[in-house]
Amino acid sequence: MSTDRSTPGFVAIEQVRYRYGxxxxxxxxxxxxxxxxxxxxxxxxxxxxxxxxxxxxAAGLLGPSEGAxxxxxxALHGPSLHAGFVFQAPTLLDWLSALDNVLLPVSLRRRVxxxxxxxxxxxxxxxxxxxxxxxxxxxxxxxxxxxxxLARALIGNPDLLLLDEPFAALDALTREELQDDLLRxxxxxxxxxxxxxxxxxxxxxxADKVAVMAAGRLAHRRRIELPRPRxxxxxxxPSFIAACRDxxxxxxxxxxxxxxxxxxx
Length: 265
Ligand SMILES: Nc1ncnc2c1ncn2[C@@H]1O[C@H](COP(=O)(O)OP(=O)(O)OP(=O)(O)O)[C@@H](O)[C@H]1O
Description:
The longest helix has 24 residues, at about 240-260. With about 260 residues, this protein is of the alpha/beta class. A six-stranded mixed sheet has the order 6-7-8-3-9-10, sandwiched between helices. A four-stranded antiparallel sheet has the order 2-1-4-5, covered by helices on one side. The protein starts with 10 loop residues before the first strand and ends with a helix. The chain folds into two domains: about 1-80 and about 160-265, P-loop containing nucleotide triphosphate hydrolases (Rossmann fold); about 90-155. It is built from seven helices and ten strands. A hairpin with a 2-residue loop joins strand 4 (about 65-70) and strand 5 (about 75). The protein binds adenosine-5'-triphosphate. The site of adenosine-5'-triphosphate has 11 residues, from helix 1.
């Protein structure tokens, strides 16, 4: 898609509700959310509050029970062709090299060209894996596997990147490096991203805007005004710490509210 990347509401989630079964409670319960082109928005919330379900709705992997999801103004009726995905586990194919894993989305659609191979090598180089292109996943560390998964999601230069706690299993320092890789690659292509996490610091570091989800609703939203490009030193800035504290308070407040709304045992 070649429309203006500054158009507001590139991703528009409009009054969306979702129930897994017709008589089940709404897991996503009346969510409104607009993500302008080129922005990174983070969805923060405790385990089980509905984050992955909302991400699957945004991906078109689930269809809303009520409401609509639009990408660039068009209602989504199935898996989005314009989105790249990064899941909690890297989910690489063991028998393919790192390079061929990155090229997988292309090879599933058509014959891989020399230009595709160059693009994949370029992506691997940008995330520090230039010398690992021929290695199989088992010969890579967890952090390197996550980098390959990120490169695979970006190979088609998607307009939208959807990430579901992609770095949760990594140690803290590797996670910070991956966050920097992600910010660099998104900035390079103006990629719009929706990133699910339960880590407050990760959300503040990455996001233009953070939404706190509790019991299926977006209970609190906060724009993150920290300058870009962001550097890891910013994590010690008073404004960073204040944003983390505000979001933590929102999560604690919503946890109390959600608990008080649960039926008594
Ligand atoms: N396929 C399904 N069928 C029925 N219920 C489901 C299904 N998938 C998820 N749920 C329920 O929906 C609720 C929200 O799940 P979801 O995975 O969206 O939460 P989450 O916030 O992403 O949690 P986590 O941080 O632990 O991944 C949970 O109560 C879960 O049990």
